[in-house]
Design a protein that fits this description.
Largest sheet: 5 strands, mixed
Distance between the termini: 36 Å
Low-confidence stretches: 49-54, 140-171, 516-520, 559-572
Strand content: 5-15%
Structural class: alpha/beta
Number of strands: 15
Mean pLDDT: 81
Strand order of the largest sheet: 3-6-5-8-7
Helix content: 25-40%
């Protein structure tokens, strides 16, 4: 039930593309909702499958923390694969799809076996967490992979972390053959090879219940592949592969238990993961429309997924009726976060500076929106670094990914807590960045006023709440502030309810370390209470985050880019005493 919003969006896109669907419902509410919509569904909670190892009704599942419920998530995987196997044994070809997937095109013809493409040669087709379009488009064999990008010798594709990457070519996350298979989108034919792979998969998954295996689930089970403890289902112990005839370099034999299955890898430009689509924007830059977009590599759970879909015009359900209401008034502003930072030679320092500028802008914008009783439309933001669950990344890029243009905006969940900002109890109502790009919001622009509150951004004088009402009070539906907002709001009176709400809101929005919560993270300095200044004062609002900026400079100076020491320092060596980073020396994989 917790995923019904995502399911409704999934159904809206599949219906619009005439994709035949069957929903596996894990609780009564979902099954009943599907019935009310005349959507074919199977009630997996009572389907007679032998899945009594653990109940899906345990406490953490009921509290909508499904993904972190070890047994709940493992049990869900067993139910999903039992469902798959049942359909295959009935003679049906099946594509498994998570609900956080948007289908932009129907895959029916591509998966028909008569497409005249590499897919016809496969028993099973998979998507991956591959991050390099350059390598994926060539489907380079594992033995030919190089340690560094040919475009930039200082940029290393390696992950160097906990068995996820390593110094050997076959451990490279840039290639689909060696990166993780993502089971969020797969396709199985009802062939001997397809059935064999499905049975092997469920057999491997059941082993997750032997003892305490917190990292074991349906995806890691599939990735274990042909060799116990292995990393790829198409490589033997010597890391060799056997291409399938007619597979165009994308289909390989997976051999196990005296059986074999033709396993094909779908291109990331056609079946895109979250980093490829939302961060690198590979399909957009190639002017391609992918079949499927899987909303991975994101933050803040379901709230982060919903935010990304809405901001990217991939949200097809209406939601509440006031989302695009002309009865509401809206405030948007021109953001300059990152303009000055782009001059920095260090992308890490540039990123921290830009994030700090955005925080100070949003503080002022929330104040303006609160005073004027307007809905705040969040701005676009250009990232200089990736955010990830690792410590600081080499060259500020997720290992394995290609460089992406700084001129491209990145999802706001990379920089702030979009769930907190979108919550009902936030200081003001908000809308996603790109809100006015939506066709439903276009009519609102028919009543729009643009004003500028500053002559130059170098000498900004703030306005009191009373002056803001006098200066910006207007009947237009949309009020746009040009020229920037940092420093234009003096603040609410000290100790007022509004002042506390504003500071609490900013603390929630920028609530966590930049890249992770422990083990070498780049911290965000806690947001301090902001005192109101008299009207006409300069540099009003939050102070600059000098602590984080200085630490970013210090951290960046620790590395020698030519030798790519980032991960070596963080995972294999100790930081030098007196460097300010010795507190992270306890980190061990």
């Amino acid at each position: 039930e917790a995923f019904q919003e995502l399911l409704m969006n999934w159904l809206a896109f599949t219906r619009a593309r005439d994709v035949p669907v069957l929903v596996g419902a894990l609780d009564d509410a979902t099954f009943e909702r599907c019935g009310a919509m005349s959507v074919p569904a199977v009630q997996l909670q009572h389907a007679g499958f032998d899945t009594t190892l653990v109940s899906l009704d345990e406490h953490s599942v009921k509290n909508k923390d499904f993904r972190s419920s070890q047994r709940g998530f493992q049990n869900y995987g067993v139910r999903k694969l039992a469902f798959l196997l049942t359909l295959l044994e009935l003679g049906l070809d099946v594509s498994l799809s998570d609900t956080d997937v948007v289908w932009q095109k129907s895959p029916v013809d591509l998966f028909s076996g008569k497409s005249g493409t590499y897919t016809d040669a496969a028993d099973v087709l998979v998507t991956s967490d591959c991050l390099s379009q350059d390598i994926d488009s060539k489907m380079t064999s594992a033995s030919a992979l190089t340690l560094t990008s040919s475009e930039d010798a200082a940029f290393n594709y390696k992950e160097w972390a906990c068995g996820i990457g390593g110094p050997e070519p076959w451990e490279d996350n840039a290639s689909p053959l060696t990166s993780r298979i993502n089971t969020g989108v797969t396709f199985f034919r009802s062939t001997e090879g397809g059935l064999a792979m499905a049975k092997r998969w469920i057999g491997l998954l059941v082993r997750c219940f032997d003892g305490d295996n917190p990292g074991c689930d349906d995806q890691t089970s599939f990735n274990s592949g042909a060799q116990p403890g292995g990393r790829s289902p198409v490589m033997n112990k010597d890391h060799e592969t056997k291409p399938v005839k007619g597979g165009e370099g994308r289909v390989y034999w997976s051999e196990f238990d005296g059986k074999r299955c033709a396993l094909g890898y779908l291109p990331i430009s056609d079946f895109s993961n979250g980093h490829v689509f939302f961060l690198q924007k590979v399909p957009q830059n190639l002017e391609k429309h992918p079949y499927a977009i899987h909303n991975t590599h994101n933050f803040y759970g379901a709230a982060g997924k919903l935010y990304r879909f809405r901001a990217s015009q991939l949200w097809a359900i209406e939601g509440n009726l006031e989302e695009y209401s002309a009865e509401l008034n809206y405030l948007s502003f021109e953001s300059f976060a990152g303009h000055e930072a782009s001059k920095e030679s260090s992308p890490l320092v540039a990123h921290i500076l830009a994030r700090d500028e955005l925080r100070r802008e949003i503080w002022a914008a929330i104040g303006l929106a609160k005073v004027l009783d307007r809905v705040l439309v969040l701005p676009r933001f250009n990232c200089f670094c990736d955010r990830y669950w690792y410590p600081i990344l080499p060259q500020c890029r997720l290992p394995g990914s290609q460089r992406f243009a700084f001129s491209q905006s990145c999802p706001l969940d990379q920089i702030l807590d979009v769930g907190a900002v979108a919550a009902d109890g936030f200081v003001v109502k908000t809308r996603v960045d790109g809100f006015f790009d939506n066709a439903k919001a276009k009519p609102l622009l028919g009543s729009r006023k643009e004003v500028s509150l500053v002559e130059t951004r170098e000498n900004v004088q703030c306005l009191s709440p009373e002056q803001i009402k006098q200066t910006l009070g207007t009947s237009e539906t949309v009020l746009h502030i040009a020229g920037g907002v940092k420093g234009v709001f003096c603040g609410f009176p000290d100790d007022s309810v509004e002042a506390k709400a504003l500071d609490d809101g900013i603390s929630k929005a920028f609530n966590s370390d930049w890249c992770c919560h422990q083990n070498g993270s780049m911290p965000i300095a806690p947001h301090a209470r902001v005192s109101a200044l008299p009207a006409g004062s300069a540099d009003a609002g939050p102070r600059a985050d000098e602590v984080s900026v200085k630490l970013a400079v210090k951290v960046w100076d620790l590395t020698v880019p030519e030798k790519d020491k980032w991960q070596a320092l963080l995972f294999g060596k100790q930081f030098p005493e007196g460097s300010g980073m010795t507190e992270h020396n306890h980190y061990k994989c």
